[in-house]
Amino acid sequence: MKNLYRPIDSVIEDIKKETSTITTYRFRPKEPLTFEAGQFVELTVPGVGEAPFTPSSNPNVKDTLEITIMRVGTVTAALEHMKVGDVVGLRGPYGKGYSFKDFAGKEILIVGGGVGLAPLRSLILALFDEIDKYKKISIRYGARTPGDIVYRDLLPQWAKMRNTEVLLTIDAPHPDWTGTVGVITVLLEDLPFDMKSAVAFVCGPPIMLKFVNMKLLEKGMDPNHILHSMERNMSCGLGKCGHCMMGEYYICKDGPVLTAAQIAKFEDPF
Amino acid sequence: MREAFIGKDDLATLIGRWAKDHRVFVPVTFDIMNREETPDYELVRDGVPEKLKLHGAALAHTPKSFLFYAREVVAKYPGAKAEAAVEAPPTVLVGPRACDLSATRKYDKVYWSTKHFTEEYDDPFYIEKRERTLIVSLDCTAPKETCFCTRVGGKPHPEDGFDLNLSPVEGGFIVTVGSPRGDALLSGADSLLTAVSSEHRDERERSRRSVTEAVDRQNAKFEMDGPPDKYDLEASQEAWAYVTQNCVGCGACNRACPSCTCFLLVDQPAGAAYERTRIWDTCLSIGYARTGGGGNSRPALPQRLENRLRCKFEYSRDRYGLVTCTGCGRCIDACMGRIDMREAIRHVLTEKAKA
Which residue on chain B is closest to A248 by alpha carbon? Predict the structure, then answer.
């Protein structure tokens, strides 16, 4: 019988530093591993352990996948010592992704914070592949400082796409910054959308999700149209080990993308 | 269901026969400090142990110890094979009680999902062992003071989920066949079996009734009278903090529990390669829900004990359609802080009613 816990050997093909703590890796799995935007994979650093990540590359690219990773713990710190050509493990994909195909014809709002733009990049690239199907794509991204902005070279390219806008903010004033200042919700005051039908995809640190969720609901968005990437300890990815439980939900199976409607009954879901 | 009577000595003979081509585990008493302790499983090696104990209440270990090892290597890498390497020798487990069988239903749903639930991931390590383990269950004949199966929808005697069941009666046991595999365990044993007399049946009914009444009686003070699948234990953190006062988060309750299914994956070097080990985990540890960057959805111990108890009653019900507290009382027996989960539930519900 097939072994669910087996990592697929995957070669590191490229390493690109995004910020002082964030790096994008491109992996080539030795066996097919395809995913939908928003689904996640388990990445093994040999002998150290596994951690869940949502790929940041275009899901329509099949042979390789990219993951943008911030150094926060033992697995991510060990990964920083690895080089191009080294072998890591991957398994997946797991969970439910962004189901963006259900929202063809709608206005799309994408709200990202910090390294939370990584899973959204995968979504954005998938949306761009079928850009004619969406009325509008508005990307609103916040980082702590100008130095913490990821995909610095891609953002201007995205802004040039048809019916697409990119708005940025940083948390506090900075000598190198002339743009908007303030936490991400400052970019959500002005939302020229049909709020009844528009769809929001949100990913970032839990505190950001909390306030973005409040703001979007306050602005009249349909709770079924606010899709959050939930942050939990998805350890097995299979709906078994229990670590990502949130009430009766297993975030690894029922998520990681959950709607504002699904989480409404929890006092503090983020 | 087919039934037969088997004498006490003949059962020992039969168990001896099973041991020729199975690992057979039987309940025995362990005398520690001249005190008869809770019975536990022993592997039958040379003949059936003298201290065989087929009466009383549930054993210390639960079926999960045999179906889902406390520690097991689940992958070796790099170059891991697609097929799982599972060791599962044919095994007969004599001694699980109704509470254990009820908990095994949750294991089946979680780890044999395609057959027993609606999810796609089947765990090869569980399924191989489950398929090769025969369960010979027993009626409880005397509850421990921590037993409360009847208060959570259970009975002290098994009704399904076994291959064979043994009901102790005068001079021997009524054997009930619960599956074709159980039937096969009795093949060639006709000379050891006789018809069940009406006296034996009456005796079994009397015993079952008296144990049920004893469990009900000893739990009356806990007021767990509502239907177990209707519990709503969402209460103030003060209420949960009160019941958590003596909890040190050791996780003994998780390990002792027959229906706790959670695990942790640990990777480490093994020679020139690496191995991934799966070990039983505890939702009471602070690191259980910790995420990258130090986030934690249940940083406080009362939140974690709340999660554990609500998992048994509410979350398992909503996810699997099962209340997974089986009332076996092992979490109470195991708790060094002497937390009685029945008292905890009563306290939480009382405080909730006041609020």
Answer: B315
Query: Residue written as tokens 């969402």?
Result: B234
Helix ranges, chain A (H): 74-79, 117-129, 155-159, 206-218, 251-254, 260-263
Considering only the C-alpha atoms of chain B, give the largest distance between any 2 of them, rounded to a whole number of Å. Answer: 67
Strand A136-143 vs strand A164-170: parallel, antiparallel, or unpaired? parallel
Specify the amino acid at residue B261: T
Interface test with A, best of B69, B73, B77, B127 (most A CBs within 10 A): B77
Instruction: Identify which of A47, A73, A240 has the shortest CB distance to residue B123.
Output: A240
Residue spans of chain A under pLDDT 70 = none
Residues of chain A that touch chain B, judged by Cβ-Cβ distance less than 8 Å: 1-9, 44, 46-51, 70, 72-73, 76, 87, 89, 205-206, 231-233, 235-236, 238-248, 250, 253
Q: Tell me the C-alpha distance between A138 and A211, whole Å.
A: 19
CA-nearest of B339, B263, B13, B279 to A239 is: B263
| Residue to test with chain A: of B237, B267, B316, most A Cβ within 10 A | B267
Mapped onto helix, strand or coil, the DSSP state of residue A63 is coil
Collapsing DSSP to helix, strand or coil, B352 comes out as: helix
B235 HSE (CA, 13 A, CB side): 26
B287-303 confidence digits (pLDDT tens): 999 998 888 999 999 99
Q: How close does chain A come to B109, measured CA to CA in Å?
A: 10
pLDDT tens profile A137-176: 999 999 999 999 999 999 999 999 999 999 999 999 999 9
Distance CA A146, CA A148 (A): 5
What are the beta bridge partners of residue A141? A112, A168
Q: Which residue of A has its CA nearest to B107?
A: A240
What is d(CA B203, CA A124) in angstroms, rounded to the nearest whole number? 72
Domain boundaries, chain B: 3-222, 228-354
Interface probe for A, chosen from B276, B288, B309 (most Cβ of A below 10 Å), is B276
Domains defined for chain A, CATH in brackets: 8-94 (2.40.30.10), 100-263 (3.40.50.80)
Contact (CB, 8 A) for B173 and B11 = yes
